[in-house]
Each structure stands twice: as C-alpha cells, then as structure tokens.
Amino acid sequence: MSRLQPSSMQQQYSLSYESIDALNYYQQNGYQAIRRAILNGENTEEINPIIEHIDSAFEQGIKFTGETYRGESLIKAYSDGLIKVGDIVSPSTFLSTSVSARSTEGFYGGQRSMFELSNGEASIIMPDMRTDELEVLVNRNTFFEVTAIDANPEMGMNNVIYREIAASDIGNRPIKDMHTGENISALEACEF
Hints:
The chain is of the alpha+beta class. It has one domain (about 5-190): Toxin ADP-ribosyltransferase, Chain A, domain 1 (Alpha-Beta Complex), CATH 3.90.176.10. Helices cover about 30% and strands about 30% of the residues. The chain has five helices and ten strands; from the N terminus they run H-H-H-E-H-E-E-E-E-E-E-E-E-E-H. It has helices at about 5-15, 15-40, 45-60, 75-80, 185-190, and strands at about 65-75, 90, 95-100, 110-115, 125, 135-140, 145-150, 155-165, 175, 185. The strands form two sheets. It has a seven-stranded mixed sheet. Strands 3-6-5 form a three-stranded antiparallel sheet. Helix 2 crosses helix 3. It is globular, with a radius of gyration of 16 Å. The N and C termini lie far apart (about 35 Å). The model has no long low-confidence stretch (mean pLDDT about 90). This is ADP ribosyltransferase domain-containing protein. Pfam families: ADPrib_exo_Tox.
C-alpha cells in the first residue's frame, strides 16, 4: 500500500461531493478539456463549475508536502535558455505530478521534473488514488524557483528541479510561465 492511500481515503471525507467528482473527472480524461479552457479562456458553462470545484478542493483538501515528479514533452524554454536557474516560474494550469518517479515514465517525452513541495498549500492528494500513478495535483497559481536545470538539446531531454516558494519570497524578480518562459505578472499567475 502506498503512503498516500490512507490520506487519499481521508480526502474523500474532507471534500464536497462536487469537488471529488471534479477531481475524478480531471483525473480520468477531463484534464485536457480543463487545461484548454484555462489556457484559452474558454470557460464554458460545463467546464467552469468543474474548475471552481477543483479550486475549492485546494482550499478544503488534505495537502501534500514532499517531493513529486512529472514527465512531459520537452519544454524548449529550458534548453533555449528562456528559463534559467534562479528564475521564478508558475504553471498556467493544474499540474499532475506523482510521488513515484517511476510512474512518470509513461508520460515522459523529453523532460523530467522534480517538485519540492514544502509549504503545504500548493498541492493536494487525489481522493481516488490510482496505484499506477500515485497522483498529487499542483495548483495553477503556485510559485516555484528553478533550482537546477540539466538541459541536453542534442539528446532532446531536460531534467528540471523546482522548489515551491511563497509569494512573499519573490521580491522584485519577474515571474515566468513555466512552459513558455514568457514573463507574467503575479496577478496574471493567480488569475489563470
């Protein structure tokens, strides 16, 4: 049994039925529609309530602290130098991560990321724990400092380490979208 499973079961009692349903929808196949809606500003009558219930889950749910991992396609902003060590980044949408580096291999397409989640506010344990994914969801308005980048453009792969930081620790440093490297304001990061 995973160390997350007891917390996952408790999560079912911490969240509203609507939040649980929204997270289950996200986890099964809805993440694509939700991601598109957030990125393109196309919050339809169907998707907007789901996003609101996921937001509510971050307020009410059991938080996660520790290390999580994510495999995804190669993000050129790192290998092209648009994002560097020391930069502050924020995801523009929810991020699926896992407590198991091994379980992210199926999603790997050139970039491996590790997230050091220490504040206990940015991530929640999914109420329906799939043992093949061991998923922890990271909120879209979270700030991270990039602490390490191992970019190898010739091999088509990046390894990136992020450390969660509080908004009060950002100071005057610019905030970049973690996938594009474009500068965004703190207000924009929180509006996504």
